[in-house]
Amino acid sequence: MIFLETPRLLFRPHQADDEEDFVQMQTDSEVRRYIGGKAWPREKAVYRFRNGYLGKPSKIYGLWATVLKSESKYIGYCGLHRVEESVRLGYYISRPYWRRGLATEASQALLDVAFSQLQLSKVFADVEKGNEASEHILHKLGFALIGQEELPRRILQIYRLSNPRSLIKSSIAYLILDLDRRPCLRTLFGRSPLHFVRDRDERSTNASNDSIRVGVFHKTIPDRLPTQAHSFDTFGLPKNAP
Question: Counting CB atoms within 10 angstroms of each CB, which of 44, 179, 198, 240 has the fewest?
């Protein structure tokens, strides 16, 4: 079963023939440097693979075997996983495949799943302080640092990324409230912009959901920004407003 594909990667459950590549990752001190600090003994890596990864995940949440399509090779594991009440992004790539943009490519695809399919309002990620490469990836994806958690001999930096669609809808709602409080607009219309929009909706039987009236959206807020061009005067109002 293939869960997800990108131009260079595919994501699927872990299979028995992934074991050796997984073990090599976990016994590499550079890979483990910022995800626990020490390389695992081979016996531990084999045990963890067979008891915690083999055959998994089976649903959306979990760390998926990540395969480089051009080589048909297991190069790590990436996914969305639940930590208490939050959902966190994780990406772990084998050292020979660093600095190729693969972690970024995997993360972008997983964030699309989180926001477009799962409709999550936000996704978190944690990075050990000092892991500049991983911090760079998160900054590039738009994550913001919101705090840190101190652990024995480690400090985890916590990042958060909000769903862009949620931000758009929140901004529109704020704009509507802000417009309704502006005396200059009430003077121009003789009533509040919200009444103007409501009245116009009631009069129009073929109004498009992605059209703009007085700088605000109709009562149905679309999932995409409008593409139709509009002409506005110096007050930010449509020139053809009644």
Answer: 240
